[in-house]
Structure formats: structure tokens, C-alpha cells
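During the reporting period the student researcher (J.K.) took over the structure-prediction task from the postdoctoral fellow and processed the backlog of single-chain submissions. One of the processed entries is reproduced below for the supervisory committee.
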Amino acid sequence: MKEKTHPPYQEVLFVDSGTGKKFVCGSTIQSDEREVFEGKEYPVCRLSISSASHPFFTGDSKLVDSEGRVDKFQKRYLKKKQEEVGKAAAVAAAVAEPAKKKTTRKKAT
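J.K. obtained the following C-alpha cells:
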């Protein structure tokens, strides 16, 4: 292996911002921030989510929306289809209107 091409592998303190849980793991992450954990100083890497706060690992089932994706698609498709039917009806009415005018213009003799 070439010298000075890879960052040093070291133990890093990872801190979950959501829960405050801390754990040490080996990594090549470089950080200027340092913190003492269990009597030893480590470089710190802050995480927005980890196994301590992720719903899959905690068992919390959080619903993002109350409707399923299929229901949303069907509602959107139905709405679009209704708009198309409305446009077709408007076009049919516009076409039928001149035909009505032609029949009403005839003079009775």
C-alpha cells in the first residue's frame, strides 16, 4: 500500500442528534470536533438518524400518509378521466350547437 494516500483509520464517536445516543466505531472520517466518552477522547461525527432513532430498528411504525400509493394514483387517474370526459362533452355540445341552429333557421312555408 502506498504511504500517505489513505486517511488514518481510527475510532470515532458517533452521536445521534435525535436521541443523543453515542457509540464508538472505527472509521476514516476526519473531524475537528472532539469529545470525551467513557474516559477516552474521540473525534465526533454527528448523525441525523441511526439505529437508535430509525423506525425500522426501534419498532415504531410511523405512517407518513393515511392513504396508500395505489389509492392516490386511482384518485388522480379518475380525476383526469373526468376532466377528459368533461372536455369531450363540451366539444360535443359545441359541435351539436351549430347543427341545432341550422335546423331552427329553416322557414316554415
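The committee noted the following: Residues 69-104 form the longest helix (36 residues).
J.K. will present the remaining backlog at the next meeting.
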